[in-house]
Amino acid sequence: MSEKQIVLRPRGTFYHLQEIYDRMNLEYFDDRCSAGITWGKDVRKNQWTSIKLGSYHGTGGENLIRIHPALDNSRVPLYVMEWIVYHEMCHEFLRITGSKQRHAHHSPEFKRLERRYRHYRKASSWEKRNLEWLLGRRQLAFHIPAETT
To answer: Could you give the domains of the chain?
Structure first.
């Protein structure tokens, strides 16, 4: 049985995921992460109740981060994009370092690592205020140009 070939699509309309990943890798992980990164498929339906903004797949031969294409939007600030990528990189990093809690997705160790992101509070707040917009249910709560960090 042959392995499925994964085609990486890191370049979006507004954001290039590989550039964000590389920057986060150097700044926070001493360039120790090596996952591929790509935009996922847009499978939104009319009545979503949740959205998975990113995911890390480190098993089954994959070492891959997927980011939801709803985030490839000029209304999503760069610091939010960085945070989503950083969050998924935290999953990868804890697997690399052999964390005892690597199977506990958001363990205390994970949460400590996640809070190291310099815009953690601002990005988390933006996500909470704009979740309904990301789900396609209402207007953006507030707009900060994407290039603002």
So the answer is: 17-134 (3.30.2010.10)
Instruction: Report the predicted TM-score, pTM, of the whole model to 2 decimal places.
Output: 0.82
- Residues 6 or more apart in contact with residue 27 via CB below 8 angstroms: none
Across 23-119, where does the E strand assignment appear? 36-39, 54-57, 64-67
- The whole-angstrom separation of Cα 85 and Cα 81 is 6
SS3 37: strand
Give the pLDDT mean for 78-82.
97
- E-assigned strand segments in 1-147: 36-39, 54-57, 64-67
pLDDT tens for 18-45 read 999 999 999 999 999 999 999 988 665 5
The SS3 call for residue 65 is strand
Q: What angle do CA 110, 33, 123 make, to 5 degrees?
A: 50
- Non-local (6+) Cβ contacts of 12 within 8 A are 39, 69, 72
Neighbours of 89 (CB within 10 A): 27
Nearest CA-CA partner of 93 in 38, 28, 140 = 28
